């Protein structure tokens, strides 16, 4: 018997974090040096913007984005005017239409799902056509939260891109720095359809079936001496590794990249985003 479709419209988990930089090649080179195996360049918005992604075997991914040469994006340029780093947080939904209905029932002004598609590889017209349904609530100063339904998920999570030299296998947490964690928690709880709870480190946590979002007025306890982007912002991600952080320590040391240990977590920073690797 096939599984019963989920028509609740609730967020099912962390989908991805979008990291914006001024130059896609340079941003990709940075993340490759930190031990990520990236997908080939793909194009958005009629070729005006592009991305490369670090797909994670057990769930979630990092999307690196930039305006391509000769292109223009008012959105990415607005993001970069604040800082280079993470600006979008996407949660996965199994049913975008149900999500819209749920949000409208909760009084959120939201448009119909946006159907979008792109080739997995811009240079290969025979590469898989990736299809998405995107629900886009109004932006907040902390960042853009999207709810995404994947129409052909397996074509995005291609096996050949899932093994990373740094051992990363899953996106476990997203850490948001905000002066108003209670207000943000209330707003994003409605968008996700999931409850929030107090975070032991201060602020609030939005617990999802896979992963969580932590909304805090200070991230020093989690990020140590790493450079924190200007608030409000998506400050950090926590990535689970397969080997108690052995591989990521080796990759960073061999590349001469600085890192610090906070309990069982390796903490460093790349492209304006603090990376927390947890074994």
What do these coordinates show?
The chain is α+β, with helices and mostly antiparallel strands. The protein folds into 2 domains: 13-159, 2,3-Dihydroxybiphenyl 1,2-Dioxygenase, domain 1; 168-278, 2,3-Dihydroxybiphenyl 1,2-Dioxygenase, domain 1. The chain is 21% helix and 35% strand. The chain has helices at 24-33, 74-82, 96-105, 153-156, 181-192, 220-223, 246-255, and strands spanning 13-20, 42-44, 49-55, 61-67, 85-92, 114-119, 129-135, 144-150, 168-177, 196-198, 204-207, 212-216, 233-241, 260-262, 265-270, 273-278. The strands form 2 sheets. Strands 2-3-4-1-5-8-7-6 form an 8-stranded mixed beta sheet. A hairpin with a 2-residue loop joins strand 14 and strand 15 (265-270). The longest helix has 12 residues, at 181-192. It is globular, with a radius of gyration of 18 Å. The mean pLDDT is 96.
